[in-house]
């Protein structure tokens, strides 16, 4: 594990960041769903620590000043916040493009109309399955969730709001992929994200029950490639594969602190939603500093900017400016040190081990899932 990092002398040598383009506002960690692949940190922010409406209004006013164009309201479930409509309106008045990332189980026609009237630009709904309500609800950890999502998606399209379907795929639902694609078309979505689970946060606890086999992954990739060709002009499909089977890592978040940041429910500015899991980094809060200062000077954001921090093999690699060494959160989760090469990379000394681990775990006949219990604790599905 890395020790607390002294970054006080780094400011001079750290490259100036580009202007951030998009921000994910995590309004709350509260959520009615219990998804076993939740990528939020193990230690969730309490409701009493959340930023107030006034805090958020001030933060929203600061976003255009530092170049931000898009604001994604997320969580947890952002609809739990009573001030969501007000903040969407405020963001629109500040000139920001607004997107609501939601489970949709708290949406109804009245809320959809209020959000549309407030100027919301786009909605993204996550789906846990397509075929059997009970199975989708089992994954979500909430009875009745799937039907509510279907109804909310229809209301969103009736309100003429653009819709993205986010299909989170894993070993227990990959056989439903063709129906998930059909579902997105039937709902009138303009975009479908087929996103294999990424194993950060709570998802790491359920990796052995969720990671697909290599055969499943290859079949899913064929299905997606065929659908992309067939549905050209009807549905845009984005595809995210599980890192453990990759040869080269993804350029996570476009690079640490490059074009994007997260604001956690309690106001911390993070390069991604999982970064709070990296021990030894202290993230600055909008409660203590203006956003412009944080973006430029926060030691934690500067820690992995540029390439000076890299170790071998990244340090001398021809791809270092392209993938920026992969994902720091994954490097930390799998090796204990965020400075290490992401083991998703075939050049990482840990890559073969991770690949073998994926093969072993995916072959297990395991369906039981661990869920976060409301109010703390853990419960296990009968599955
Ligand atoms: Fe990317 Fe590092 Fe792998 Fe090179 S060694 S491909 S820079 S992760
Ligand atoms: Fe944090 Fe990849 S999720 S850097």
UniProtKB/TrEMBL annotation:
One of its GO terms (biological process) is pyrroloquinoline quinone biosynthetic process. Keywords: 4Fe-4S, Iron, Iron-sulfur, Metal-binding, Oxidoreductase, PQQ biosynthesis, S-adenosyl-L-methionine. It comes from the Bacteria. SMART domains: Elp3. Its EC number is 1.21.98.4. InterPro entries: 4Fe4S-binding_SPASM_dom, AdoMet-like_SPASM_containing, Aldolase_TIM, Elp3/MiaA/NifB-like_rSAM, PQQ_synth_PqqE_bac, PqqE-like, Radical_SAM_PqqE_MftC-like, rSAM. Pathway: Cofactor biosynthesis; pyrroloquinoline quinone biosynthesis. Gene3D superfamilies: Aldolase class I. It catalyses: [PQQ precursor protein] + S-adenosyl-L-methionine = E-Y cross-linked-[PQQ precursor protein] + 5'-deoxyadenosine + L-methionine + H(+). Residues 17-235 form the Radical SAM core domain. Belongs to the radical SAM superfamily. PqqE family. This is PqqA peptide cyclase. It comes from Telmatospirillum siberiense.
């Amino acid at each position: 594990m890395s020790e607390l990092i002294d970054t006080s002398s780094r400011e001079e040598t750290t490259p100036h960041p580009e202007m951030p383009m998009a921000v994910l506002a995590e309004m709350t960690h509260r959520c009615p769903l219990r998804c076993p692949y939740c990528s939020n940190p193990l230690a969730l922010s309490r409701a009493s620590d959340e930023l107030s409406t006034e805090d958020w209004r001030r933060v929203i006013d600061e976003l255009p000043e530092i170049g931000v164009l898009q604001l994604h309201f997320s969580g947890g479930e952002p609809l739990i916040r009573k001030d969501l409509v007000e903040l969407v309106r405020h963001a629109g008045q500040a000139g920001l493009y607004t997107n609501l990332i939601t489970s949709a189980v708290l949406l109804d026609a009245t809320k959809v109309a209020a959000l549309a009237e407030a100027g919301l630009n786009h909605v993204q709904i996550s789906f846990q399955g397509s075929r059997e309500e009970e199975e989708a609800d089992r994954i979500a950890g909430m009875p009745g969730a799937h039907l509510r999502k279907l109804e909310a998606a229809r209301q969103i399209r009736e309100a003429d709001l653009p819709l993205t379907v986010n299909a989170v795929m894993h070993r227990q639902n990959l056989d439903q992929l063709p129906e998930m694609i059909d579902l997105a078309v039937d709902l009138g979505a303009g975009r479908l994200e087929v996103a294999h689970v990424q194993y950060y946060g709570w998802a790491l606890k359920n990796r052995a029950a969720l990671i697909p086999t290599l055969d499943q992954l290859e079949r899913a990739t064929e299905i997606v490639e065929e659908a992309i060709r067939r549905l050209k002009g009807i549905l845009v499909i984005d595809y995210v594969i599980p890192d453990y089977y990759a040869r080269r890592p993804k350029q996570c978040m476009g690079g640490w602190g490059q074009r994007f940041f997260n604001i956690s429910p309690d106001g911390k500015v993070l390069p991604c939603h999982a970064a709070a899991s990296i021990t030894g980094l202290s993230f600055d809060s909008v409660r203590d500093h203006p956003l412009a200062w944080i973006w430029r000077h926060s030691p934690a954001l500067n820690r992995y900017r540029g390439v000076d921090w890299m170790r071998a093999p990244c340090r001398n690699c021809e791809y270092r400016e392209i993938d920026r060494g992969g994902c720091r959160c994954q490097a930390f989760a799998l090796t204990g040190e965020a400075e290490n090469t992401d083991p998703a990379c075939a050049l990482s000394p840990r890559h073969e081990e991770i690949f073998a681990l994926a093969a072993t775990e995916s072959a297990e006949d395991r369906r039981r899932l661990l869920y976060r219990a409301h109010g703390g604790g853990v419960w296990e599905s009968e599955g």
